[in-house]
Design brief:
Layout: H1 2-16, H2 19-43, E1 49-50, E2 53-54, H3 55-72, H4 79-86, H5 89-93, H6 99-129, H7 138-164, H8 173-186, H9 198-206, H10 214-220, H11 227-255
Antiparallel strand pairs: 1-2
Helix pairs in contact: 1-6, 2-3, 2-6, 3-6, 4-7, 6-7, 7-10, 7-11
């Protein structure tokens, strides 16, 4: 376990070295947060409430989703696929640690960095510029923290599965683009899943992607309380177990007969 903690710590320090890149990313988050906020401000002029969301909820949704982008999802991450293409994956598979655990630890270290240096500043920008709804109960903050941790693991598992398709294809960029385009909608990042047509919403809510954005947001806004909140966390935990298992099964199938491409 100490090895994985050390891997996460090194990954955290690695990302902390790129401060200028983080500042640029923070500015981008703030800009799109403003754009999305003004869209909702315009929409809510016509009606005071939509599917249980009042304007205060919608603005909170915008800024919390913007804050969760980097801790939970980082688009275009194809580092594992690149090691497969270069042949460097052999050294990673030879390490005295689990291949999945090694990359998960690296990603959790990255997520920890972005919680401090992207999530918190982005949320503060939203709080300064717009009225927002913060959780009223301490237990909500605890559940939200746990939910974000599981969301980060779910996000990593999705990216891990995309990356290891590189064992079967020389270029995973097409698969990455298609999957992440769908994920943007199915997580509830573009618009809340509550705004979907009933049939589409019912499907989206039972998929694992809802656990990456929609469930943390519903917990933050305290739209679910008590047993309902525990039910959301239980659904997240179930999908975490299932996707982690899927990652291990797929990796085992991929490495059963490994052919190194390139070097």
């Amino acid at each position: 376990m100490n090895r994985y903690v050390e891997i996460a710590r090194v990954s955290y320090r690695r990302h902390r070295a790129y401060r200028a890149a983080n500042i640029a990313g923070l500015a981008t988050n703030g800009f799109f947060g403003l754009v999305r906020s003004f869209v909702f401000l315009a929409l809510y002029r016509a009606r005071p409430e939509a599917e249980g969301y009042v304007l205060l909820d919608a603005l909170t949704y915008v800024w919390v989703t913007q804050a969760l982008i980097m801790p939970v999802m980082h688009w275009g991450w194809l580092e594992i696929a690149q090691t497969i293409r270069d042949g460097d994956v052999i050294s990673d598979l030879s390490k005295p640690v689990s291949f999945f655990g090694y990359w998960l630890s690296r990603d959790l270290g990255r997520s920890g960095y972005y919680v401090l240096y992207r999530f918190v500043p982005t949320l503060c920008i939203g709080l300064i510029l717009f009225p927002m709804r913060l959780p009223e109960h301490l237990t909500t903050w605890i559940y939200f923290t746990l939910s974000v941790l599981m969301a980060a693991v779910l996000g990593f598992c999705v990216l891990f599965l995309i990356n290891i398709t590189g064992f079967w294809t020389t270029d995973v960029r097409g698969i990455n683009s298609v999957v992440l385009t769908a994920v943007n909608f199915l997580t509830g990042f573009i618009v809340p899943l509550e705004f979907f047509p009933p049939a589409a919403r019912a499907i989206a809510e039972v998929l694992p992607f809802a656990g990456m954005i929609s469930i943390p947001i519903n917990i933050f806004l305290e739209r679910a309380t008590g047993l309902a909140m525990l039910g959301l966390l239980g659904r997240q935990a179930l999908w975490v177990c299932m996707l982690v298992l899927a990652c291990h099964v797929t990796l085992a199938a991929a490495t059963r007969r490994l052919v190194v491409q390139g070097g």
